[in-house]
Structure formats: structure tokens, C-alpha cells
Design goal:
This protein is mostly beta strands. Helices cover 0% and strands 51% of the residues. The chain has a domain at 237-344. It has strands at 13-17, 32-35, 43-49, 55-60, 68-73, 79-84, 100-106, 112-119, 126-133, 139-145, 152-161, 166-173, 179-185, 191-197, 204-207, 213-217, 220-224, 230-235, 240-246, 253-260, 263-269, 276-282, 285-292, 298-305, 309-316, 322-328. The protein starts with 12 loop residues before the first strand and ends in a 16-residue tail after the last strand. Residues 1-27 have low confidence and may be disordered.
Length: 344
């Protein structure tokens, strides 16, 4: 998977609003921070922006032995709901649970779909599960997923909004090798169909035109249509790749790939992955999430390697120039996810 949970996600601080997608480099600054679940330790993993500007943050309540956890906050920072999967005393239940939400997606009527992996109650088998939460935080249901293909989920799940529904990516541990698991959900979160194949075993995805999906991993990027059929694929250098997500519908495909801890490359493709149109090299930056705006400015979130890994942000300009910032120089750290907070 592209973003590894094994990193120490002990921070309870989410970078809330950094109003610099179109600002000059001198104007880059943190405009707001939000402490999540201040009375408990939590490990946020992903951020999803809802259509009304609310943010859903998903992850777990700790590292190693944990419960799946998520929260929704308004665009101005007020808590709307917080959900912890497990019994009423789950905050103080330290049994071996091994549960985590990996992503979230918006459903019809403002409801939220949480996608995760948990350990089955009757044994050590890991299973995939969905939780649906109403807009004000009421639990609608929780569903354990039983794939029609033998094997158990591994490595996480990615739920990606696509054409009045949701595409779900995961992987299955099967013999002799793993395989990908693709599900299509309707706008209410109901499973319409599922497919299996090596081309689905990626965990970083981005909506494509006509309800399709771009997926990245295994040193290649692929494009599938709304029915899961492979349209095209392209090999990539390096071993750790991340999409640079656009604020609006993508007009090209931008990918950050690490060749080494001191050499990151941004590669641009056209929308059909046919032509590589631009490459930019960056030194000492690792990317876990990237965004790019309509004016062609890319912003990379991850770590800057400067006397150890530090929380880092890099900006790359259309002319190929770049500026790197160390946001938290006092201790090791990194950013896992980022979303635009407005239309800029």
C-alpha cells in the first residue's frame, strides 16, 4: 500500500486549513489547527471533504491494539460527531482488536460511509467492514463484507467517490498470490457488484472521467472504466507513488514518485495515460499526499528529510521551480493526508 500505517501516527493534531493553494510562497502559513478527541489518544489516517465543507477524519484510537475511530467536524471546526467501533467502554478496552478505518466517502443525504478492516470476533481472521453514519452522527448500520473470492482483506481499503456512487479498493490474501478486490456501491452505500483481479489491488485511487477510476501502485498507474474494465496502464519509476489530486475534475494525471529518500519525481500524463508530458525532480522530500490547483501549482505533504524526517510541505510551480518548508522542526513527523478546504 502507498501510505503505510506502520508509521507512528500518534499525533492528535490535524492540519485544518492552510490557505496557500494559490498564494505565494511567502504567504504559506498555518491558519488553523484542530485538536481531535482531546480527552483520548487517536491516530488519524485520512481526511475526506464533504460537499458542504465538513471534514470526516478516519483512523483508529491508538497504534497496535486499537479500535476503528472517525469523527466529523464542520468547516469552521465544530465537532459534529465522533464514532468509535466497539463496546461502550471501548476507549478503555485494551484487548487485541486490530481495527481501523482507512477512508470515508459521502453518501446520499449527507450520510457517511466508513471503510475499514477489523479482526473477526471468533478468531484471528481479518475482515473488511462498512459503517454508515447519519449526518448528525447516528449509526445506521455496520456490515461485515464476505467476498465471493476466497481470501481475507489485507493492507487496508480505499473508498473513492465516483459518478453518483463509490468505488472501493482492497486486496485479498490468497494462495498462491494476492489479488485485488473492487466493489461498486450506489449512492446509499449498497454493494452493486464486486470484481477480482490483480489490476484492482491498489490503494490509492482518483476519480476519472465517465465514472471510471485511476489507480496507482506496484510501480504502475492504470485507468479503469465505470464497470471495472481495464482501459490503459503505464509503468512508473520508483517504489512509492502518490496521485496529486486536483481541486476539480482532473484534466491531466500528476503523480509523485520516490526514487529514493533524497529524490522525488513529479510526472505528468495526459488523461488517457498515453503521453508523459513533464517531469520535475525534488530533493529530500517524501510525499504521502499531493494536491494541485487550477493554476498548475502542486503542493506535496509528507516528510522533509533534514537531519531526520520532519513534517514537510513542498510547493512546485509551473516553471519547474519549487520551495520546501519544514512545518514542525522540533520532532520527527509527517503528514498523511490533505484536502482543499475551499474552491481555490
Amino acid at each position: 500500500m502507498n501510505r503505510k500505517v506502520a508509521k507512528a501516527m500518534s499525533s492528535a493534531i490535524v492540519l485544518w486549513s492552510m490557505a496557500f493553494i494559490t498564494a505565494s510562497a511567502e504567504d504559506m502559513k498555518i491558519t488553523r489547527q484542530l485538536v481531535l478527541s482531546p480527552t483520548h489518544k487517536v491516530a488519524p489516517y485520512s481526511i475526506t471533504r464533504m460537499s458542504n465543507g465538513d471534514l470526516v477524519i478516519a483512523g483508529a484510537d491508538s497504534i497496535g491494539t486499537y479500535h476503528a475511530w472517525a469523527t466529523r467536524v464542520s468547516k469552521s471546526g465544530e465537532l459534529i460527531w465522533e464514532y468509535l467501533d466497539g463496546p461502550a467502554d471501548a476507549w478503555t478496552d485494551y484487548s487485541k482488536n486490530s481495527q481501523q478505518f482507512y477512508s470515508a466517502a459521502e453518501l446520499r443525504n449527507g450520510n457517511t460511509l466508513l471503510c475499514g478492516i477489523k479482526r473477526a470476533v471468533n478468531g484471528t481472521k481479518l475482515v473488511a467492514f462498512f459503517v454508515r453514519i447519519g449526518v448528525e452522527g447516528k449509526l445506521i448500520d455496520e456490515r461485515i463484507l464476505q467476498p465471493a473470492h476466497d481470501g481475507m482483506p489485507i493492507g487496508g481499503m480505499a473508498c473513492i467517490a465516483a459518478d453518483n456512487g463509490v468505488m472501493v479498493l482492497s486486496g485479498l490474501a490468497v494462495v498462491p498470490r494476492g489479488t485485488g478486490w473492487l466493489m461498486r456501491l450506489d449512492a446509499d452505500g449498497n454493494v452493486l457488484w464486486e470484481k477480482f483481479g490483480d489490476q484492482y489491488g491498489y490503494l490509492d485511487g482518483m476519480s476519472a472521467d465517465n465514472g471510471g477510476l485511476f489507480m496507482i501502485g506496484g510501480s504502475e498507474v492504470i485507468k479503469i472504466d465505470a464497470q471495472g474494465n481495464l482501459l490503459t496502464r503505464h509503468s512508473l519509476p520508483g517504489s512509492s507513488q502518490t496521485f496529486l489530486h486536483s481541486v476539480g475534475p482532473p484534466t491531466k494525471v500528476r503523480i509523485s514518485t520516490m526514487l529514493s529518500t533524497v529524490d522525488t519525481v513529479i510526472i505528468d500524463f495526459d488523461i488517457n495515460l498515453k503521453d508523459q508530458v513533464h517531469t520535475t525532480h525534488l530533493d529530500n522530500i517524501s510525499t504521502d499526499r499531493g494536491l494541485y490547483s487550477g493554476n498548475g501549482v502542486a503542493t506535496l505533504f509528507g516528510s522533509r528529510y533534514f537531519n531526520g524526517a520532519k513534517e514537510g510541505v513542498a510547493r512546485v510551480y509551473p516553471n519547474g521551480g519549487s520551495t520546501m518548508f519544514t512545518v514542525e522542526p522540533r520532532q520527527p513527523g509527517w503528514f498523511y493526508d490533505a484536502v482543499p478546504t475551499d474552491s481555490s
